Amino acid sequence: MAYIRRFKSIRLDKTCFRISGKVMAKVSSLGISSFITQIAIVLVMAVTNNILVSYGAQSKYGAEIPLTTIGITMKVNQIVSAVLLGLATGAQPIWGYNYGRGQKDRVKQTYRVILTASTIMLILAFLVFQFAPMSIVRLFGSESELYNEFAVKCFRIFLLACPINGLQMATGIFFQAIGKPTQATVLSLSGQIVYLLPATLLLPLALGVEGALWEGALWAGPLADALSSWRLLSL
Predict the structure, then answer these.
(1) End-to-end C-alpha distance for the chain, whole angstroms
(2) What is the distance between the alpha carbons of residues 30 and 74, in angstroms, rounded to a whole number?
């Protein structure tokens, strides 16, 4: 309160503290994509866990190994995504301010910087996931050969398309920053609900948890990422 009294360009009165339906609607529309993303992540994790337990019980891996290893894979992916989210969220004020002032060149430059940084980080993560996944798995404990085998497949398959995730996340937050909640919401819906959830349900029906060399449920991840990126290009 002491700092608020020192504002030079902002003056607060009683009307500033009244609830405004228009303001609430505007704020809600800008935050709805993030809300959808978080709800969808929980929903996808629940469905994926149940699918893997069901099909895993019919395979040599059993029910517990797929459930445990996919949990590790998703948690690691969430950590990487949190870093990307931090980068893009940090750029939000820059995007919003310059877009509002008509400085589109600065907006584009900042977008390219964030996208480049995100892509570089994801490529490094991709190399670890593909060529040294056990270095991550051992952090959570190394178990039987079957456990290690399925954990490696989880990282290599489910996160196969992770290098393109930076494009989706940076662009979604970019749309929020410049006041375009519809496009941001479309990205959130396409990434998790429209593509990933149906793929998680349908692919195992065709391939099962152990389809030849690959697990059908795990292919939902890269398939959804690829389809979401394709959808992004059409916006």
Answers:
(1) 44
(2) 26
- Collect all residues with Cβ–Cβ distance below 8 Å to 78 and sequence separation of at least 6: 41
Which residues are paired to 211 by β-bridges? 214
Number of Cβ within 10 Å of residue 128's Cβ equals 15
Report DSSP state, residue 158: I
Burial (0-12, 13-18, 19+ Cβ within 10 Å), 203:
buried
CA 28, distance to chain mean position in Å, is 20
pLDDT band at 213 (very low <50, low <70, confident <90, very high): very low
Tokens of 235: 């916006």
Determine the Cα angle at 164 with ends 201 and 209, to 5°: 25
For 28-74, write each residue's pLDDT tens digit. 766 676 777 778 778 888 888 888 877 777 778 888 888 899 889 98
* Token pair for 156: 């290599």
Q: For 95-118, what is the HEC assignment?
A: HHHHHHCCCHHHHHHHHHHHHHHH
Q: What is the pTM of this model?
A: 0.80
Question: How does DSSP assign 179-221, residue by residue?
Answer: T-HHHHHHHHIIIIIITHHHHHHHHHHHH-SSBTTB-GGGGHH
37-43 contacts, C-beta under 8 A, 24 or more apart:
37/172, 37/188, 37/191, 37/192, 40/188, 40/189, 40/191, 40/192, 40/193, 40/196, 40/197, 41/78, 41/192, 43/192, 43/193, 43/197
